[in-house]
Specification:
mainly alpha
């Protein structure tokens, strides 16, 4: 039986290079997002929103590769996956910092290394579970709907997450304005 990558014309070496580039760019994206989160206090949600929107757009491009005539281009698919991985980092790191901030400011836990460890452990646990579930779901989707349709479904989910995040930002701003009005 042929692997997914072989059915679209990629050998083991090309597949390995594409995944190596994807992993490297994810690490770079997380480092950049970490720096942004360290140096700004209000840009976390916007960083997540931009990252999520770009992930959705790249997924849509990957899903359209067949129609664009780029389905056999390892450069196109590798570049798209690299950009997607870069912005996965920028979408997830602010989420962890916001989670830590939320946990410590509402008095649920005190600030410190133990709390940072709990939040980081939760993030790694959820990320690991999503890798397992995502891989299984991706395999099922590939069998039933095909390789490119998986990316189209992914883009719909990512755009939906972007819309939910945008609503969350608006609600948070509204609550802050209402608190300020009550204080006056």
């Amino acid at each position: 039986t042929q692997s997914t990558w072989e059915t679209i014309g990629y050998g083991v070496r090309t597949t390995g290079i594409i995944f190596a580039i994807t992993c490297i760019t994810m690490v770079i994206g997380m480092a950049i997002a970490g720096w942004v989160c360290d140096h700004t206090t209000s840009a976390h949600k916007y960083c997540m929103l931009i990252g999520q929107s770009i992930i959705a757009t790249v997924s849509l491009l990957l899903g359209s590769a067949q129609w664009l005539g780029l389905d056999k281009s390892s450069v196109f698919i590798g570049s798209c996956l690299a950009v997607k991985a870069l912005f996965i980092g920028s979408a997830t790191v602010p989420m962890v910092t916001d989670c830590y901030h939320e946990v410590t400011t509402n008095g649920r836990m005190s600030e410190g290394v133990v709390t940072q460890s709990h939040v980081a452990s939760l993030y790694v646990c959820l990320f690991s579970i999503s890798d397992v579930v995502g891989t299984m779901l991706g395999g099922v989707l590939y069998e039933y709907v095909g390789y490119y349709t998986m990316f189209q479904i992914s883009s719909i989910l990512a755009y939906s997450a972007s819309i939910i995040l945008l609503i969350s930002i608006a609600v948070t701003k509204y609550k802050r304005i209402m608190k300020l009005k009550q204080a006056i």
